Every structure is written in C-alpha cells, then in structure tokens.
Amino acid sequence: TSLLFNHSPPPRLSPLTMASIMSLRCFFSNPSIASRASKNGISTMGKTSLFPAAASSSSIALNQHQLRPTIISIDQQTRYKSMTKTKKRQAQKMKDREKRVARGLPAKPLPPKYIPKDLPVINALTRVERDDESKRFDADAASEMKTKITMQSEKEENLRFMFDGLVMSDRVRKLFELTNGSQREVVTSQKKRGMELFQLREGDTGSSAVQVVALTTRIQQLQTHMAKHHKDNSTKRGLDALFVRRRKVLDYMERKDFESYRKVVKSLGLVR
Fold first, then answer.
1. What distances in angstroms separate CA 262 from CA 154, 193, 216, 220, one per listed residue?
2. With contact defined as beta carbons under 8 Å apart, do 214 and 191 qualify?
3. What local confidence, expressed as pLDDT, does residue 57 receive?
4. pLDDT above 90 covers what percent of the chain?
5. What residues pair up with 44 in beta bridges, in sequence order?
6. What whole-number distance in Å separates Cα of residue 269 and Cα of residue 263?
7. Given a cut of 60, is residue 185 above it in pLDDT?
8. Given this model, what pLDDT does residue 212 score?
9. Distance between CA atoms of residues 60 and 41, nearest Å
10. 3-state DSSP call for residue 61?
C-alpha cells in the first residue's frame, strides 16, 4: 500500500532546459509554423501548461524516414547541371510530340491551309483553257483602260496652282498651262492623271492600285535623276525603299484582289 500512494516529486529541470522548453512551446504555438513542421515530419504532442511536470510529458517525435536525406547519383547531378534552357525546351518538344503520336496525330502540327500532296485536284483547268481565259481577261482590261484614257483626254488639262474649273480668258489660261510650269508641277499632274485611271471612286487616293501608280510615278522620277547623278547614294537608298514598298503593296494585291493586281501589272508594264 505504501507503494501505491508513493508520490515521487517531479524531476527538477535546470534553468537552461526550462528556457529551451518554453522557447519550443512559443515556437510551435504559431499555426503556420506548426503546419510546416508537421509536413516535414515533426509532430507536436499535447499542449499543456509550462509547469515542469507537464513539460516533461510533451515531446517532439521526429519521423526518421522523412528526414532521411535523398541520395542523388553522380550521373543525375551531372544531367541536372547540364540541362540548359535550350535542352529543356527541346525535351518539352519531344514530350509534346510523343503525346501527339499517342493520340494518333502527326508528330509536328501541320501549317495552316495545308494541302496534302496526294490530294486529288478536282475541276482543274488545262493549260490551254487557262491561257485562253488569261487572254480574254487582258483584252477586257485593255478595252476598259482605253475607254478611261479616252474620257480623260476629253477633259481639260490640269492647270498650275490647281486652277482647274475656273472661268478665265484664253490669254490668262495660257499663263497657267503646264507648258509654263516647272518639272515638279508636270510630274504632279502626271501622277494625278495616272491615279484617276485606277480610282474606285471619286477622290480615291488610298486604294492599293492607286498607291502602286503613285509609287511607280515617284520611282520613274528618281530613276531619271539617278541616270544623271550616279553617285547620289541618298537618292539610291530612297529609291530602294520605294521598290520595297511597291513590292509589298503588289504582294498584298496578289493575295486579296488578283484581278486588280493583273490590271495594274499589265497597264504599268511591271515585271513580276
């Protein structure tokens, strides 16, 4: 009976041990820290008071299996170090190709508007039929252009300083004719009359065909200048830029409006 009721006093802890226990209790009282510790394999037991008897009952259990360091072989370390951004991108491409092949698709995605080589062409015209169609189109375009040129010749010629349409005597009109104008005024008048042949509406200056006519007029003017001044490199650079601009506009017309493209090329005598 004496053994049953024998209450031994709690073990005395040193001040250093007591301070460490209190610091641990304060550390694990933070919920975020406690959750991280539990994920890493550290679990806290029951939270009791900070008395020595209760502190002795709390313990920290370490999960030795989770805290065991992962062993990486030398080959893996070398492979990880040698994986540059380019190699990672290539590896990702290979994975994507494997996924596409697994789904029954080609390894590489096909370009837009792709037409297989073995696809049969239906309702294709023969070369003779295409040549006949081209000749008919050129004849219609030539007749239409002749009609526009005839209508334009019936109008009065452009006067200097944009004095067209004004009522004046013949003696005064001679002063404003282009025969008395400068070369710049003559070129501007020619450019205006050429643009009128391809206008879609009155006052049209922005359609693709009109832009090609305006650029061609400027190119011809600079070519005349370069024939006299061979060493003018600044003008040569500007002339090359105009060639590029005209080619881009013609490429756009060829894609979007092929009929208008053919008319412009045939009328201006451009080599494409």
1. 27, 20, 15, 20
2. yes
3. 43
4. 26
5. 60
6. 10
7. yes
8. 95
9. 10
10. strand
Query: Mean pLDDT in the chain?
Result: 78
Residues 178, 158 contacting (CB under 8 angstroms) = yes
Number of residues that make up the chain: 272
d(CA 225, CA 191) in angstroms, rounded, equals 17
Q: How far apart are CA 256 and CA 250, in angstroms?
A: 10
Q: Shortest CA distance to 215 belongs to which of 185, 252, 241, 186? A: 241
Q: Are 197 and 217 in contact (CB under 8 A)?
A: no
* Per-residue DSSP letter, 161: G
Q: pLDDT tens digits, residue range 7-45?
A: 555 566 676 677 777 776 666 666 666 666 555 554 444
d(CA 248, CA 130): 26
Q: Which two tokens stand for residue 262?
A: 């053919």
Q: Burial level of 253, CB count in 10 A (0-12/13-18/19+)?
A: buried
Q: Between 183-197 and 208-228, two packed helices, what is the crossing angle to 10 degrees?
A: 150
Dist CA 56 CA 99 (whole Å): 58
pTM for the full predicted model = 0.51
CA 224 to CA 243: how far, in whole Å?
15
Q: Which residue has the tokens 């550390």?
A: 27
Residue 44 sits at φ, ψ, to 5 deg, of -95, 140
Tens of pLDDT along 129-180? 889 988 998 899 889 889 988 888 887 777 877 777 778 888 887 878 877 7
